[in-house]
Write a structure and sequence with these properties.
Helix content: over 70%
Order of helices and strands: HHHHHHHHHHHHHH
Largest sheet: none
Number of strands: 0
Radius of gyration: 20 Å
Amino acid sequence: MSDQIAPARRLPPFLRGVDPAVATAFACILLLLFLGSLYSTSFLSPEYLLQQLKVASFLGVIATGMMIVILLGQIDLSVPWVVAVGGMMSSAAAAYGTAGIILAMPFGIACGVAIGLVNGVGVAYLRIPSMIVTLATNAVAQGLMVVYTGGFSPQDSASAAVRYIATGFLLPGIPNAVVIWAMIGAVTIFLLTRTTFGRSIYAIGNRESAAYLSGVNTRRVVMTAFAISGGLSAFGGVLLAGYASKAAQAMGDAYLLPSIAAVVLGGTSILGGRGTYLGTIAGVILITLLQSILSVMQIPEAGRQIIYGVVIVVMLLLYGRSPASR
């Protein structure tokens, strides 16, 4: 036994206990940076990298909620239209004077939380498979938004405050979107590693029946996790609306597979119970850089979706069958 432990003790302290999937994701990031520099000399410029980090922030906010749900061993397929609901309702509220402008962002997020609660009740209390209930709420949200807009592109614009939050610079040289993602990430790390709620999420993901028998209120935890996922997806939609100055129908369609791929690329088991937020950060950055390179190579959207799907399947084969370590 001591012979097996000795090599690990000889590693530098910061390398001990590093998840191989996280290390692989960061290695792939370095590889993509190298490949990108071969296409364009400006790929490694600070300005371009900061812009990529800003773009990654929107996906990072959405992927945070997806990670919490996946840690439970569940999935949230309502992301596309929850993102759209957040952006469209926030922009719609901004058209109602000063009060609407003040409440625009909270209203958009609240709409996402409401949809997440519906998902959570369906999964936790009605015992409907998460894939079914979230797909159903996604369809309902799509129908409601089509009815609201009459089938046309929304005419409402994002408020100046939302645009500043999404595109401004409160700190010199650092986009607000990056600061927001960092704050959400810090809260998520604290939530998952330092609270009973976080430990309950991992316990449910490993074995829900065992968590229940140990005294965890599994239904409440699952419902809360889906509410958080819905709120973060809607918040991502609000930020995207501010980034583009207005919301658009199907604006969230491009974020479902990338958010799942970012989470599983970072080593979070899609079967639940194992994963770290550092891995999700690496997965988000990796997916963003991959999107950038695919754009430079002029790969069509259909090709990108195929690549994301293949990534998810490969990571499921690599990590989905491994025993949970928590």
